[in-house]
Every structure is written in structure tokens, then in C-alpha cells.
Amino acid sequence: MPKEPHVRVPKIARKGEVVPIKTKIDHPMETGWRKGKDGTPVPRNRINRFVCAFNGEEVFKSDFDAGVAADPYLAFFVKVEESGAFEFTWVEDEGRTFTRSASILVT
Amino acid sequence: MTRDATGNATISRRRILLAAVGMVASVISDLLPRPVDASPREAKKHLAELTGGAPAKKGRVTVTLPKITDQAAWVPITIAVESPMTEDDHVTAVHILAERNTVPQVATYYLGPANGKAEISTRIRVKKSQIIIAAAVMSDGSIFVGKARSKIVSGTGGCG
Q: Which structural domain range is residue B13 located in?
């Protein structure tokens, strides 16, 4: 079971500023090709989708394939025009979703 | 192995049969499907599928990778695309492909004017020394491709 995802969002920003956002979720990202200690393949289980929404509007999304390293780290930029909350969602192959939110004050 | 009355080593027929069965079993297990590495040609095909076959141009995409690393399962990568990121002219998607991984697709990122800056950092698995391709799809449909090379020095690759 992954722990709570890590998210770094600046607390305050100027109107129209492009703010850096860093996210990381603890997840093994099993490809399904690796063999466990007993020789049987470890079943595939990885994060396949990441969505970032700001005030309910989708601003960034991503599809992950096998090449993304374990504990996927992702940094990107978002231009903020008003105060609000970011909502981050990770979707796993097994259907579980992990969410985390962070608010930003725009002056 | 046992020794007979004269002291010579002998191998019983049962042992030979068992050894033969073991060899056949190991050969069969080698023939079973296992992840095969992709080739640069396959990566090109995947890229054409992802981008709809539009001709890819060079430039505007900068891929930053460590030139040499021994952490193949954990290679930091930064992709920066030169774009004003306005309503009329922005990056809509960025694809990362690793030519010689088991599956060439690494990830796809969907961007828009709300991002303000087309730059993404992440960590990828790189199976062996190879070229990593980043393709940016612009809002007008044109495609720009950037490449970078990373050398993997340890024997163990990333399992991607």
C-alpha cells in the first residue's frame, strides 16, 4: 500500500506567475516481467495515469508506460491566475486511485 | 556417480535419463516467451503511430539526460520545449520513447496553455545504453523531435 503521495506547490504566487509543481508517489511500478524470489513472475501493477486539476479544470495529465521508474516523480509548471486548489490524482492498474490536494494563494 | 567392483566410475542409465530430461526442460523454458528488447525501427513505428505519421522535424526540443550512469532503473530526464504556450501556439503532447527498452513507450504528457512553460522532469528506466527520443506535438499539428544518449555502465539494467 503506497503511503500518501508527496506534493510540493508554492504557498503564494503572483497573478500570472508560472509556478513549479513537484509530485512523487511511493509505488513499485511492477512491469509484470520481473520474477520474485520464488521464481514466479510478480503480477503487473503500476500507476498508469496522473491528472492534475486546478479549481476543477484539468491542467496537466500523463499516461505512464513501463519505462517510468518506480516511485514516479514528476515535475511540471502551471500558470496561475487566481487563488485556488490543485487536485492531484493517480490511477493504478488495479483500479485504486490516490488523491492529494494543495492550495495556493495568488496575489 | 557410483564405483563398481574394479573401482571405475560408472554412471547409471537412470542418471543419464534424468539428466536428459533436465536438459530438455531447461531448453523448453528458454524457448518460452520472455520480454524481448525493442529496436530503433520499432521505436520509430511506435512514434509514427502516436503522432499519426506526420513528418517529424528536428529542433525546439531539448532532452537532458546524464551522459553516463550506473543507476539504470532511476535515470533523471528533463524535457524542455521552446514554445510561447499561448492559446494559438502551444505544446499539446510530449511523448518519451526509449529505443532499446522492452517496450519503447515510456510516458506521454498532455499539456496546454495553462502550463505556461513546456518543461517536464521525471525519472525513467533505461534498460541499456541507448538513445532516448522526446517528441513534442504542437497545437498546429507539427511534430518536433529531440534526442539524447545515456550510457549505462553497470551490468544490471533497469527492468523497464
A: 2-31
Domain count, chain A: 1
B75 plus B118 within the same structural domain: yes
Quickly tell me which residue has 503487473 as its cell. A44
pLDDT at B29: 55
Q: Is A39 strand, coil or helix?
A: coil
Do the chains contact at A60 and B73, CB–CB below 8 Å?
no
Q: Please indicate, yes or no, whether residues B61 and B80 belong to a single structural domain of this protein.
A: yes
Return the C-alpha cell found at A82: 487566481
State CA A15 to chain mean position distance: 24
Per-position DSSP letters for B36-75, written without gaps between them: ----HHHHHHHHHHHHTTPPEEESSEEEE--SEES-TT-E
Contact A74 B125 (CB under 8 A): no
The DSSP bridge pattern shows strands A17-24 and B143-152 to be unpaired
Residues of A in contact with B109 (CB under 8 A): 60-62, 76
What's the rounded Cα separation, in Å, for the pair A29 and A32?
A: 9
Number of domains in chain B: 2
Total number of residues shown for chain A: 107
Q: What is the grid cell recorded at A51?
A: 491528472
- The pLDDT tens digits for A32-69 are 888 888 888 888 888 999 999 999 999 999 999 888 99
Give chain B positions within 8 Å (CB) of A10. Answer: none
Whole-structure pTM over 0.95, yes or no? no
CB contacts, 8 Å: A67 with chain B: 96, 98, 101, 103-107, 124-126, 160
Q: Are strands A97-106 and A12-13 parallel, antiparallel or unpaired?
A: parallel
